[in-house]
């Protein structure tokens, strides 16, 4: 049975609201450079998720995530500064994902409280919005929802020039990956 049919069936939805809290999960960005691989941790994020579990399959009705761009921290001040310059954080304070639809949802185990999902939505980075399909594993527990996955991206797709250092002798690779293991609570 299609998730779209469950969401649009006309049955009143009994959605439970969940929020993302800082410090209960991990979101990080990884990439490469001509010198070494690197990792940046997201320290400030917020979001809301609405989920109806009354049907045969859960119906994810809403998922919005917001990251404070200057909360990306590498542990190295100069790298953080280069990151903020590349993201133009003076003009673009946040990175946002807004789900538009659930493209697929399949149980991982039976009986299931864990599902493989593909979420279609808009990712906005440095003021540039692009449609993406976010693959993740959705786990439903009492009082909370876990979302885990990773998403490869190219900086240039968002109008970001990969940062350089030491007069261009150190160059960051265009490809990055966002890894997330988030906990959403009621």
UniProtKB/TrEMBL annotation:
Residues 37-182 form the Lipid/polyisoprenoid-binding YceI-like domain. Pfam families: YceI. InterPro entries: Lipid/polyisoprenoid-bd_YceI, TTHA0802/YceI-like_sf. PANTHER family: PROTEIN YCEI. This is tRNA modification GTPase.
């Amino acid at each position: 049975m299609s998730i779209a049919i469950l969401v649009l069936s006309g049955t009143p939805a009994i959605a439970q609201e969940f929020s993302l809290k800082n410090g209960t999960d991990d979101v990080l960005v990884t990439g490469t450079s001509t010198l070494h691989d690197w990792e940046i941790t997201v320290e400030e994020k917020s979001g809301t998720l609405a989920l109806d579990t009354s049907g045969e399959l859960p119906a994810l009705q809403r998922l919005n995530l917001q990251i404070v761009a200057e909360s990306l921290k590498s542990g190295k001040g100069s790298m953080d500064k280069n990151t903020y310059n590349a993201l133009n954080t003076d003009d673009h304070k946040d990175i946002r994902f807004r789900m538009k639809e659930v493209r697929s949802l399949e149980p991982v185990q039976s009986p299931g409280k864990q599902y493989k999902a593909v979420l279609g939505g808009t990712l906005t980075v440095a003021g540039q919005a692009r449609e993406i399909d976010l693959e993740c594993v959705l786990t439903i527990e009492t009082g909370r929802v876990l979302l885990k996955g990773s998403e490869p991206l190219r900086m240039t797709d968002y109008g970001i020039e990969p940062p350089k250092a030491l007069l261009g002798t150190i160059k960051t690779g265009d490809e990055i990956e966002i890894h997330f293991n988030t906990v959403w609570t009621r």
